[in-house]
Amino acid sequence: MTDLTELWIYLSQGPLLWLTATVVAYGIGDTLFVLSGRSPWVNPVLIAVVLLSVALIATGTPYETFFGGAQFVHFLLGPATVALALPLYANLSLVRSAALPMLAALLAGSLVAMLSAIAVGWALGLRGEVLLSLVPKSATSPVALGVAEVIGGIPSLTAALVIMTGITGAVIVTPLFNALGLTDWRARGFAVGVAAHGIGTARAFQVNDTAGAFSGIGMGLNALLTAILAPLVANWLF
Fold it and tell me: For the chain, what are the domain ranges?
């Protein structure tokens, strides 16, 4: 038992341990997702978050230690966000044909995402920096964290809210759109990208390639618009 404890102490300090744990946790989540028939209720990201949370609590590992090992995954968020320019280029003709409706939907979706979060938070008694942390929750993580810092929010809280928003969107989007009778994959994908950023975009690609492409476009454009509008909204309301 002593040898195992010493081995764990040694391994827990290595940066590759939690990087490996992150990859394995997502692999388990993705496997369960496939076995479920790709049910939106079996979300790989949510499963990975739960498994990693249990592992951190069970081992008494501080978040800082975990992030020190898994930060390579965090680093890849930047290049992944930039790579979303590829779906925009590949679907440029479709984007041009629907430019005005997309811009209108982008502006409405971005503002509603911010203002509705503020309204709900205010109604629940949230104030100050906690309430400000809600503002960029529908933008992709690298942008949301930067915006939260600029407007006086708490970046770490915003990061958690971004993940929760993405997971919620990925889980409910397909049943919701089916119930609404929305069949246009461009509209479905764009709405998901604006509201649920990267996690929602991953779900959109699982359902339909066109939806995934437009979700990536919506995600990228909303990140840009949120960076512009969030400081204005924060200054106006606070």
Answer: 1-78, 83-238
